[in-house]
Amino acid sequence: MGDFFNTILSPLTIGEAWVMLGWHRLWLTLGIGGGWAWALSIVGLTVVVRIVLIPLFVKQIHASRRMQLIQPEMQKIQAKYKGKTDPESRQAMTQETMGLYKKTGTNPFSSCLPILLQSPFFFALFTVLNNLKGISVGTHPPIGPITPEVATAIESSNIFGAPFSSTFLGASDTPTKLLTVVLIILMSVSTFTTQRQLMRKNLPDSALDNPFMKQQKVLLYLMPIFFAISGINFPIGVLLYWLTTNVWSMGQQFYVIRKMPAPGSAAERALHDRQARKGKSVTPFSLPGLDRPGDTDVQDAPNPDTGTGSRQRQQPKSKKRAKRTGGSAPGAAGGPAKPGSPDATPTDQ
Question: What is residue 142's predicted lDDT score, i.e. its pLDDT?
Fold first, then answer.
């Protein structure tokens, strides 16, 4: 099974080896040598991988927004078939759900694509770094440009006295153990910060108080334990890759939350406030025929041009404006609308 997995990853493993070597030559040209040249090569490899995945990340953002916008409709479907366990009802619920996905162009699996596609890159780098020792002594075949000579050079280089292919469990020296612990802590902090800003700023208010979100909060605090358990088994080079991609994700998400926030979230309201202060207008992200999360003040009102109902936002009136129009809005304290006025109902007239 391991040989089959390595065969599948072979093109990606060789490609990453070439990218690493290309970055290493660049750093040597710039006068950076030793272990830091290889460390920065891993950072450069991470940047290349994340740049390649940017189009998928953009698709993930749009897919995530669509999933947030269709939640009210999803809840209606679930409520409609709540308690119905017969095959016909389950099939009808599935058909309505799939129809909603098709109508809105939503794919629930699109938001998982970037994470899933990062995994092969991660394991390919793990394969390269984990086999450096075997390549250097001739027990493992070369991986692309990683010949025994290159593998020996990488093996003999280090940062802060810790070799790149060393792991916490397999090391007996203090520098390797200390550097591993520091990298794991930094990975945990960067992941915690990324998820926390997502949960606090970029989710609709309606999504903040439900069982799923409570589970996410528990996972948020369990993540450092996961990193501690898994990180002690990975080479330092892989931990460096992992930390770099976490920092990239944190910066990328900060930009997205600020510039393209989720509908109905605190970040979206903050964006609208910033644009309003600058005198600019913002077109909210929406799907045809669907309510946006958090839009609780949208009501069906008659359209004066067509006489049919349409979605209109009811704007609050100030006291001065209420006096000028002869009172408050229809149905509110302050008296009914005057007969013949645009706000008058058929009873008023």
Answer: 92
